[in-house]
């Protein structure tokens, strides 16, 4: 087996967690499921895993539960021109090369490896007081607290830059001068930064009402400024666009173990007992994509939280979706979170 194939193949007894580690460690964005005879059993992409999570599968589920068992393949003799045409036609990034059902190669879409640039606006909300991080925030706004050797806001900004975004808006309120002095207009990173200042706190959604009318009429990514994450913003935007969503909320899986045995019954008769069951929920991850129609619905200087804004759209029968994230994510809201971020920053690989 070639070195490239050995890096993207996985056995059918592995878990979604194993597949994610493989996909995230390689640039090919695919995992090929093979048996011990090198027969191709299926293909797994990031999207397959996210759909599995939405269907209540855990990361410990077996890869065979989400893999595409009928992937598009080609013979090794297929010309590169034809392979590229197939990938572009079907919007896929790679095609396994199969002979007699045995995996012998993998052709990738070379153009996908080139940097893509997005004109979509990105709004990072950086106006909070950071009260729960006192005394660190007595003289420093929370987004400017250093994680490793960089301010949290700079790490977030650089993750977007790496994904190809260049059009940024930063909402400020508490100690705005420190943020503006550090980032300026963004020219040092070849990006554009515009500041929108909240004279009074406007909630997690009110800042969108301060965005200028001249912004590109494209879906806008909105993120809380106290989040440390490796979310794939390109995939997030693609999910939003492909599903014609009005708004998309990133969600995280959250497990809660009830510390007691749970008893079910009919009247006084016990019908079942479960010892310390685990309940699984999706929780708001503080990252959103919203269309311009929603932005225009928020009047300037109006207090509103983002969940309330999306609830209004849902009430209007809008198409509001959730995007499950499995990548690293940490909401730095308390001192323990801040300490955790310091421990994670090098291990997770936030390169700058």
Automatic annotation (TrEMBL):
GO molecular function: transferase activity
Domain CBS span(s) in chain numbering: 1-59, 67-122
Regions annotated as coiled coil: none
Protein name listed in UniProt: Nucleotidyl transferase
InterPro entries in the record: CBS_dom (IPR000644), CBS_dom_sf (IPR046342), Mannose-1P_guanyltransferase (IPR050486), NTP_transferase_dom (IPR005835), Nucleotide-diphossugar_trans (IPR029044)
SMART domains: CBS (SM00116)
Annotated organism of origin: Shewanella woodyi (strain ATCC 51908 / MS32)
Keywords: CBS domain, Transferase
Source domain of life: Bacteria
Pfam families named in the record: CBS, NTP_transferase
């Amino acid at each position: 087996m070639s070195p490239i194939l050995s890096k993207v193949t996985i056995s059918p007894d592995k878990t979604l967690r194993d597949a994610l580690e493989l996909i995230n460690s390689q640039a090919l964005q695919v995992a090929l499921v093979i048996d011990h005879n090198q027969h191709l059993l299926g293909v797994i992409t990031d999207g397959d895993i996210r759909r599995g999570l939405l269907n209540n599968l855990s990361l410990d589920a077996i890869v065979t539960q989400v893999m595409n068992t009928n992937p598009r393949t080609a013979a090794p003799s297929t010309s590169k021109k034809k392979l590229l045409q197939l990938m572009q036609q079907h919007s896929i990034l790679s095609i396994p090369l199969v002979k007699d059902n045995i995996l012998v190669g993998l052709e990738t879409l070379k153009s996908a490896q080139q940097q893509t640039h997005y004109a979509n606006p990105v709004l990072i909300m950086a106006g909070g007081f950071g009260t729960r991080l006192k005394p660190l925030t007595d003289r420093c706004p929370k987004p400017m607290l250093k994680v490793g050797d960089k301010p949290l806001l700079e790490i977030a900004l650089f993750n977007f830059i790496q994904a190809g975004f260049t059009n940024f808006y930063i909402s400020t309120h508490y100690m705005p001068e420190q943020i503006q002095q550090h980032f300026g207009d963004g020219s040092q990173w070849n990006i554009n930064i515009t500041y929108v200042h909240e004279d009074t706190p406007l909630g997690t959604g009110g800042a969108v009402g301060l965005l200028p009318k001249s912004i590109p009429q494209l879906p806008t990514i909105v993120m809380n400024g106290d989040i440390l994450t490796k979310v794939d913003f390109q995939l997030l935007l693609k999910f939003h666009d492909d599903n014609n969503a009005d708004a998309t909320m990133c969600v995280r899986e959250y497990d809660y173990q009830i510390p007691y045995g749970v008893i079910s019954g009919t009247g006084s008769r016990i019908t079942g007992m479960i010892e310390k069951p685990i309940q699984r929920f999706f929780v708001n991850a503080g990252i959103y994509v919203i269309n311009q129609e929603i932005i225009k619905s928020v009047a300037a200087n109006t207090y509103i939280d983002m969940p309330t804004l999306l609830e209004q759209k849902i009430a209007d029968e809008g198409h509001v979706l959730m995007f499950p994230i499995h990548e690293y994510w940490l909401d730095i809201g308390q001192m323990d979170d801040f300490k955790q971020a310091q421990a994670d920053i090098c291990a997770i690989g936030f390169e700058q």
